[in-house]
């Protein structure tokens, strides 16, 4: 701890170096609606003869800074299209007044702009910023008609596994945020949640491979999904509806509305979706004796079909108490139900491949998920420009109810009936989450900033599962398989972060300290003994970032980032109860899991927004992944800390207009992935070279027509014990603007060649081999319609492209 405070002292001293001040004038420009004005022309004139001394353009935040000024008296003039010019009184710069921070400059609309004019600038699909990559979802034609999970699958560098695990640049364990706030879900639960969120409600997706210290230290990377919120004056909105057909039918429909008037900004969304899918899984499992000879084998065919209708609503308000103080709230509600049926057929063979027995069964399940989230937020800006305090409190609850009924019938090789088993499985669970956080930003002199904050989170999960053996109408409790697991987790965190910019260099150094307190209880019953476990650990997570401009304009930059991060076991993974997929496949949790830690390093070169190349190295300890063991002919999968690992990767991105009508966005990642450990006494040291490529071709034609062709290819992939074969997919989308360009009609085709099928092998199994193939409903065609409506009282409609400073000011976590 002594070394920690020494580091914090050095960090503050580092920021204090910025106290030497040359003569400077700085300020910020806003319009009459209190929105910042990027791209305004700032002219510094001599007060004596009005000659131009220096000029500048305001940045994306409406800010400007005129530096290295001589002692003199000046006049400032600011102009912007559609606004009246601003002209200041005389400003004196001398040794007694070396630095002038002007009050906010307000530009009033010119008379020619008082009538409605709507200017909608087309944002690029990909924007490269200092600390993140931004994907503008509206620029993705196929986003309308897709779920949020499907939009993520089309996002460069992002991969979604069959189990719902989301990876970024080949690294699993990604922390997914919605408007800067964690979902506290993972795996299949997170995938189901994102499937119910229509793509039409998304504004942008932020990808952060090395997040700064103000973000949670959890996760290998962060994907922050920003939902739509419009700040133009008046009542505006948009509506979208879509339908797609494969083997199953899906629909996504959403309406977004926004009313902004003076001090109040109201916004909301409502949506209805119907997700449906099928999965045909084929398993070939070979069991060996101690002498490595075949002992028996099982061929298993599973056919799953499900539908998930759902509704979502979102309502929020921002209220400006004054020009400097704003508070707001957001309420989210989702309700989804799932009906599923899994049919399976098995053949058991002897060592000589002679049919021994036949199995047939089915699982019927129905579930309901209800999610409620309430957020209260506060922001206060002090007199010093950029100095602000923000605070958030959150309450989130996830409630699950449902049951599964499993029926298995066994027959001998000649077809005679030998056994039947029926089980009923009730699966209620509840997750309650409370969080509170505050962030303070304090600008220092000479483009230096000091940030500090804290966060507290309290999570309780309650899983109460009940098994019953069913015979006719009689249900007999099976206490050996029943389970009641309660898990509590408290995390207290504090951080300090400092950043500074020089003429060509920028640096950022941060430290985050997190204490985690965990308690897990498995309540006993007539057959199961009660157990409990406790964990308490404190860790320090440093982050560092350096950037250097190779030229005076900053068109070419080099950046180096270093961070330590943690992957805590998700609380669902700590529950030791068994979940039955079929008669031959079980899944269980592991209360003995430890956190996974890793250091990550990245060196990146970026040319404007057009081209970038990065070298990345990641070193992992206590890697958490699902491991499988064979017990007789049953495969049990559970999470374990079984290995150390490393990933060495090169990632490139290209964003280039090849012609007036063709823009290409290409991403290529080449990685070497390796694990070294032991799983169930078997050595686990798989090692592969992998490549991932994502191509997005955006085509612009005459008369409002646009097109999009996307392709994705991945070579062999490594996920713990599973090694998957190469696969690819190609998607098409065509769009036509209608209704005076306020509406659009889209035709969509997904996975044209039905090539996004999964084949994998499970390695390092003790006395077993396992091969798996899965085919799902990925080849689809669809149609989508979207329409913008409403009238703005003042018409200069802008899209704000958040830069690094905006991101640091945003309310997160």
From TrEMBL:
The record's section on Gene3D superfamilies has: Carboxypeptidase-like, regulatory domain (2.60.40.1120), TonB-dependent receptor, plug domain (2.170.130.10)
| Record carries keyword Nuclease | no
**Keyword list, A-Z:** Signal
Protein name, UniProt field: Outer membrane beta-barrel protein
Annotated Pfam families: CarboxypepD_reg (PF13620), OMP_b-brl_3 (PF14905)
Q: Which organism is it from?
A: Larkinella humicola
The UniProt entry, under InterPro entries, shows: CarboxyPept-like_regulatory, OMP_b-brl_3, Plug_dom_sf
The Outer membrane protein beta-barrel domain extends over 380-787
The record ties this protein, via SUPFAM superfamilies, to: Carboxypeptidase regulatory domain-like, Porins
- Signal peptide from the UniProt entry: 1-18
């Amino acid at each position: 701890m002594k070394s920690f405070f020494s580091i914090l002292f050095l960090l503050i001293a580092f920021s204090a170096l910025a106290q030497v001040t040359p003569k400077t004038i700085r300020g910020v420009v806003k319009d009459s609606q209190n929105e910042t004005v990027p791209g305004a022309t700032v002219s510094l004139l001599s007060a004596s003869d009005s000659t131009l001394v220096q000029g500048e353009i305001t940045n994306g935040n409406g800010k400007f800074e005129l530096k290295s000024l001589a002692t003199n008296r000046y006049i400032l003039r600011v102009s912007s299209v559609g606004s009246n010019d601003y002209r200041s009184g005389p400003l004196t710069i001398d040794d007694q007044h070396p630095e002038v921070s002007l009050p906010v400059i307000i530009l009033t609309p010119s008379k020619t702009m008082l009538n409605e004019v709507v200017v909608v600038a087309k944002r690029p699909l990909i924007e490269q910023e200092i600390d993140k990559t931004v994907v503008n979802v509206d620029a993705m034609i196929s986003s309308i008609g897709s779920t949020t999970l499907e939009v993520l699958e089309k996002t460069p560098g992002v991969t979604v596994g069959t189990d719902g695990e989301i990876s970024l640049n080949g690294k699993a364990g990604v922390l997914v945020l919605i408007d800067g706030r964690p979902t506290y879900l993972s795996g299949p639960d997170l995938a189901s949640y994102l499937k119910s969120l229509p793509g039409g409600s998304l504004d942008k997706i932020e990808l952060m491979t090395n997040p700064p210290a103000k973000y949670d230290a959890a996760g290998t990377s962060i994907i922050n999904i920003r939902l739509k919120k419009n700040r133009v004056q008046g009542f505006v909105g948009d509506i979208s509806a879509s339908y797609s057909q494969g083997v199953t039918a899906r629909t996504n429909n959403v309406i977004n509305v926004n009313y902004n008037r003076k001090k109040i900004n109201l916004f909301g969304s409502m949506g209805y979706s119907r997700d449906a899918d099928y999965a045909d899984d084929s398993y070939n499992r070979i069991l060996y004796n101690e002498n490595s000879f075949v002992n028996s084998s099982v061929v298993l065919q599973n056919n799953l079909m499900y539908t998930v209708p759902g509704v979502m609503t979102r309502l929020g308000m921002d209220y400006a108490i004054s020009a400097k103080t704003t508070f707001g709230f957001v309420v989210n509600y989702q309700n989804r139900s799932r009906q599923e049926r899994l049919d399976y057929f098995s053949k058991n063979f002897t060592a000589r491949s002679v049919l021994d027995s036949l199995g047939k069964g089915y699982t019927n399940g129905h579930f309901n998920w209800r999610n409620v989230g309430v957020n209260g937020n506060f922001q206060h800006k002090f007199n010093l420009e950029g100095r602000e305090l923000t605070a958030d409190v959150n309450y989130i609850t996830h409630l699950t109810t449902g049951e599964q009924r499993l029926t298995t019938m066994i027959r001998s090789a000649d077809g005679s009936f030998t056994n039947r088993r029926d089980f009923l499985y009730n699966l209620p669970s509840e997750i309650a989450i409370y969080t509170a956080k505050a962030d303070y930003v304090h600008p220092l002199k000479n483009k230096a900033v000091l940030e500090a904050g804290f966060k507290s989170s309290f999570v309780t999960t309650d899983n109460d599962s009940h098994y019953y053996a069913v015979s006719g109408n009689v249900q007999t409790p099976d206490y050996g398989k029943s389970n009641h697991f309660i898990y509590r987790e408290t995390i207290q965190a504090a951080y300090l972060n400092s950043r500074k910019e020089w003429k060509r260099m920028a640096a950022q150094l941060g430290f985050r300290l997190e204490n985690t307190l965990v308690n897990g209880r498995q309540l006993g019953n007539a057959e199961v003994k009660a157990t409990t476990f406790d964990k308490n650990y404190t860790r320090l997570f440093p982050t560092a970032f350096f950037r250097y401009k190779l030229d005076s304009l900053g068109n070419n930059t080099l950046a180096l980032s270093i961070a330590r991060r943690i992957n805590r076991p998700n609380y669902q993974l700590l529950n030791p109860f068994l979940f039955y997929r079929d008669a031959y496949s079980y899944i269980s949790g592991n209360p003995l899991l430890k956190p996974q830690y890793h250091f990550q390093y990245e060196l990146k070169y970026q040319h404007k927004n057009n081209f970038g190349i990065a070298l990345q190295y990641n070193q992992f300890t206590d890697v958490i992944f699902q491991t499988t063991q064979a017990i007789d002919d049953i495969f049990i999968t559970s999470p374990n800390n079984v290995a150390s690992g490393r990933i060495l990767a090169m990632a490139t991105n290209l964003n280039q207009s090849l012609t007036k009508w063709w823009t290409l966005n290409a991403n290529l990642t080449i990685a070497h992935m390796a694990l070294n450990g032991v799983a169930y006494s078997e050595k686990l040291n798989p090692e592969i070279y992998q490549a991932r490529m994502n191509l997005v071709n955006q085509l612009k034609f005459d008369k409002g027509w646009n097109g999009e062709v996307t392709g994705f290819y991945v070579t062999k992939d490594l996920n713990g014990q599973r090694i998957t074969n190469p696969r690819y997919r190609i998607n098409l989308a065509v769009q036509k603007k209608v209704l005076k360009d306020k509406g659009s009609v889209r035709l969509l085709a997904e996975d044209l060649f039905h090539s996004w099928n999964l084949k994998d092998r499970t390695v390092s199994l003790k006395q077993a081999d396992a091969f798996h193939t899965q085919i799902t409903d990925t080849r689809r065609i669809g149609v989508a319609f979207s329409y913008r409506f409403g009238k703005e009282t003042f018409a200069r409609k802008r899209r704000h492209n958040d830069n690094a400073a905006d991101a640091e000011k945003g309310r997160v976590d």
